[in-house]
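ok trying this again, last paste got cut off
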Amino acid sequence: MILFFSNQNTVYAVHSQQNLSENNIQKLIWLFGNASLKNESVLTLPGTDFFVGPRAAMVTPWSTNAVEITQNMGIEGIIRIEEFQITNEKEAEFDPMLLQKYAVLNQELFTINIQPEAIKDITDIAAYNKQEGLALNDDEVLYLEELSKRLERPLTDSEVFGFSQVNSEHCRHKIFNGTFVIDGEEKPFSLFKLIKKTAAENPNTIVSAYKDNVAFIEGPTVEQFAPKSADKPDFYQKKPFESVISLKAETHNFPTTVEPFNGAATGSGGEIRDRLAGGKGSLPLAGTAVYMTSYPRLENRPFDSAQDRPWEQNIEARKWLYQTPLDILIKASNGASDFGNKFGQPLITGSVLTFEHKECFDSAKQPSDNTSGVDRSRSSRMLGYDKVIMMAGGIGYGKKDQSIKDKPKIGDDIVILGGDNYRIGMGGAAVSSADTGAFSSGIELNAIQRSNPEMQKRAANAIRGLVESDINPIVSIHDHGAGGHLNCLSEHVEESGGIINLEKLPVGDPT
C-alpha cells in the first residue's frame, strides 16, 4: 500500500508492505515536517498543474536514506519513500533522465509492467554504430565485421556496445598513445611518453605514477587515529605508519557541457573514487575544480554590466546546443560543491577561465607553403571553449606498504561495492570520445552519469575500514567509471583471466 503525506507543494509517497500503526504514522508526520496524512488513495490536481517526481523504475538515493531513517526510528515494513513536487508548465524544470511528470499519484505508482528487451544480433555494425552513438571509427567497424566472420555468427548488441566502451578514446587514450608523423617524419615519442618522460628522468620522491588510478609521492610518518576494528563498535587507538600522498586530476568536459550540475558533480565524484582506488586502497582529503568556458556575457545582471566587459561584445554569441556558458559556470560550480558536501570532502580551491578569440586572415600575406595546419581558405576562424573544460582534482593519502597493487591470482574473488545498475551513464566512455552534438540529444543525455554521493560515501567507508585495519585483504582495486563493468572488471582480470557472471549484478531498473 502507498500512503501520501502533504506539506505545502511537496507530496511524500510511502510504500509499505503492511498497515502502519497510528504511532508510526505520527512518527512519519513528524519526519516530514508536520506534513498532513492524505485520506485519499489517489491524488489529482486542478487545472494544468501536475506532479514531478522520480521515475517509477528508479529508486533514488534520497529514498534509500529516508527508508534507513525510518528503520532507525523503529518503523518496520517500509520499502520506498519518494518526494513529488506540485508544479506547472511555466515553473517546471527537471532532469528527464531522473524525473517525470505525473498527472495522478495512485496505488500503482511504483508498479513496473515493462519487460526487458531480448538480446539482438547486429548484422549491420556500421549502421548500429551510428544509431547508438558508439563512436567507432572505420577501422574498428572493419575489425568487428571480420571478427563476426571468424566466429561465423553475428555479434550481439551487448558485444558491440561493450567493445565501443572498453576501446573508446576515453578509456584507451588512442590519440595520446598514437604515433605522430609530422612533416613526413615519425616522432620517437607519443604524447603520453613525453608526459611520462619527466617522471622517468626526475623520479625524486615519486612512489607510483602513470600506472594506477592516482599518483603517489612519499609522505611523512603520521599517526593513525581509528577504531580497532571497522566491522563493529570499538575503541579508537593510535598507530604510526609511513604515508604516501596521493595526487589526481582529470577532466569531465563532455558531461559538464551537456548537463553541468551532474557533469561536474560526477567529475568530482569520479576523481574522489580514483583516490580511493589507489594501490590497495587510499583515502581522499580535499578537492579542487577548474572551469573553462566561452564568454558568459553577464549583461543585465545586478552585479555586472556589458560595459564592464566590452571584449565580450566583440564576438557574437552562438546558439548554444545545451546550456549557456553562464548557466554552465553556475550549475557546474553548484554540482561539484554539492557532491563534495554530501560525500564529506571539501572543495578547497579552484579557478575559472573564459576565452574567445577571432582571427582574421589576409590572403595576400599568407605564405604559399602553409605548414601550420590552420585552414586559411576561410577569411577568419573562431576559437573558444564552446565545449567546456571541467577539471576535478584533489589530494589524499595512503599507507606506503599498500601503495602498490598486487596481481590477482586464479581463485581470487571480485567484489563490487556500490548501488544498483541503471541505464544512466551507459555509453559515457564512447560518447565522451566524440564531438559534443555529434549524436542525438537523447543519446548524449543518457550517457551522463548522475551523482550518488551517499552511496559512494558508504563504499568509501568500507574501503577506509580495510585500509586502516592491521591486515588489508585488498589485492587490487579499481574505480568504476565511464567504461562501466566491462572496463573496470576486465582491467582486474587482464593478466589472469576470469569469469564474470553478469546475471549476478544487482539491476535496479527491471526494464
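PB: full thing came through this time. The chain has three domains: 2-105, 121-167, 209-365+373-504.
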